[in-house]
Structures are given as C-alpha cells and as structure tokens.
Amino acid sequence: MKNEERVVLCGANSYEQKYYLNQDFENLPKGIQDELKMICVLYTEEVGGILTIEYEEDGSLILRSAADDMDYLYDEISAGLKIRQIQQERQELFQALELYYQIFFLQQEQVL
Fold it and tell me: Minimal CA–CA distance to 7: which of 28, 27, 21, 17?
C-alpha cells in the first residue's frame, strides 16, 4: 500500500492536555481557528486519546483518532461514533476548509 502524505491541520492530545494548530494555517480567520480548537479539545475531553484533523493528498479532510497502547479507558467504537457525529455537524466547515486547502495550497482551480 502506498504511503500517502498527509498534512496535519490541527490536533489535540488528552495525555499531554495540549492543542496544536499547524503554523501554515495561522492565517485562517480567528473564529475558524477557535472552532477547530473547540472540536479537538472537546473530543479529547469526552473520548480521550489523540485527535488530529488532516488533509489527504487530494485535499479532503479526515479526522484521525488514536490512543496509547496502555489506555484501557479508550473505546474505539465510541471514538468512531463521535467522529461521525462531528463530521455530520460540521460538514459545512469541513467543506470550506477543503476548498481553502485545494485553492491556496494545492492551487487547484475551482469551477463554480
């Protein structure tokens, strides 16, 4: 299987209680940055583990959840359900972020 390169937009880590926003995206509007932080931090508070929001090579966004091997409280099923809930509730935000990345980073022309 091909090792695809992904670009991390942001993420949160419940073990270190830290949030990360990729410096390449610091010019996103403050409101969007705050919303991304809220999504990541609330997710890790509720589910635990580590959540990253990443761009795939084609510019689509994925939410990736992981946990330490010794974290016996982390539930993969609950994590997956929460990710699906976030994707549904924040669909417009994620579509806008995908479009932003495709235009400004991948320099794709968009046909409206």
Answer: 21
